[in-house]
Amino acid sequence: MEHHADYAEFDSSLNRKDALESLIMSYTALAESQSNWVANLANCSSLLYHCYNNAGVNWAGFYVVDVENPDFLILGPFMGKVACQSIKIGNGVCGTAASTLKTQLVPNVEDFPGHIACDGMTKSEIVVPIVQNNKLIGVIDLDCTELNGFTEVDQKYLEELAVKIAETCKF
Ligand code: SME
After folding, report:
1. What family does this chain come from, according to its entry (predicted)?
2. Cα–Cα distance measured from residue 112 to residue 134, given in angstroms and rounded to the nearest whole number
3. How much distance in Å is there from the Cα of 2 to the middle of ligand 1?
4. Alpha carbons 31 and 65: distance in angstroms, whole number
5. Pairing mode, if any, of strands 72-80 and 57-65?
6. Res. 13: pLDDT tops 90
7. 123 membership: H or E segment, kind and range
């Protein structure tokens, strides 16, 4: 890559699987020389947002465990509009992924009890937990303005990304 910004150029002809494989390669390359979690998750938010640019994704980013208040997640690096700062673990889609350590694939946010609506435009969502040394670190969160915005393909690659993040970041 000639410039860092080039990493955020995704070929619009790529299918979702190929785009996500390319995203994981880019994240891995960027994280090779950097282990600071803020820097890595900030660039990862950009990669995610641009990767899903044509798919109606309106928010892509992270909530991390609040070290001052470990029953809560706190807003981390993201791309998109202003969002809720703090989410109790167990609440909403993010808090459920955090408390169960299981990906939450939500085809219609209105059907998810306790969904926290940071943006009324959001119709579907996927949240993937990040675990390091058997400890919850945070979650990846993607929102979409379309129903059924995400599938098992997204789940598979975003779970792979969560493992990569745990392997490459110092929290
Ligand atoms: N909808 C999430 C809240 C975070 S925003 O989507 C950015 C939830 O229910 O946890």
Report:
1. Belongs to the free Met sulfoxide reductase family.
2. 27
3. 35
4. 21
5. antiparallel
6. no
7. none
Which domains occur in the chain, in start order?
4-168 (3.30.450.40)
* Alpha carbon of 7 to ligand 1 centroid (Å): 27
Query: What is the rounded average pLDDT for all residues in the chain?
Result: 96
- Tell me, what's the pLDDT at 48? 98
Angstrom CA distances, 78 to 10, 23, 43, 62, 127, stand at 18, 16, 9, 6, 13
Give the DSSP letter of residue 100: H
* CA 55-48-103 angle, 5° bins: 90
With 0-12 / 13-18 / 19 or more C-beta atoms within 10 angstroms meaning exposed / middle / buried, residue 127 is buried
Question: Which of 73, 124, 141, 144 for mutating ligand 1's site (highest number of atoms within 8 Å of CB)?
Answer: 141
Interior/surface letters 148-165, b for 16+ CB within 10 angstroms, e for the rest: ebbeeebeebbeebbebb
